[in-house]
Specification:
Blueprint (H helix, E strand, L loop, with lengths): L1 H6 L3 H7 L7 E4 L2 H11 L4 E5 L1 H9 L3 E4 L13 E5 L4 H10 L2 E5 L2
Antiparallel strand pairs: 1-4, 2-5, 3-4
């Protein structure tokens, strides 16, 4: 998480950490979902606050809010949704972060 906090999103890093499904960067709308994925990926949890204008720009760049796909038998139920940012939108995300449209903070 420190890398994302300090340097922003990077397609090479995302590809190296990718384990299943479509690639990109994912934000969970609920803490419990974020915790599940952080434990699975040996990652961490940060809170990202995204302004309405930044959200609009990211959606234009291909990002989307959607239901978390069902993982099949033996997976835990999800309580929220995910915000998927494809690698093609990483540049937009990083520029919005630098401009203050996306802010990070502690998850709790």
């Amino acid at each position: 998480m420190k890398e994302i906090w300090e340097k922003g999103l990077d397609a090479g890093s995302a590809a190296a950490k990718h384990n299943d499904g479509v690639g990109g960067f994912f934000l969970a709308t609920e803490y419990d979902d974020a915790e599940y994925y952080a434990l699975r990926a040996r990652g961490g949890i940060i809170k990202a606050t995204i302004s309405a204008d930044a959200m609009k720009a990211l959606k234009i760049a291909g990002a989307q809010v959607r239901d978390i796909p069902y993982g099949g038998p033996g997976t835990v139920a999800r309580v929220g949704q995910e915000f998927h940012i494809p690698t093609s939108a990483f540049g937009v995300y990083n520029e919005l972060r630098k401009a203050g449209g996306i802010a990070y903070g502690p998850a709790r």
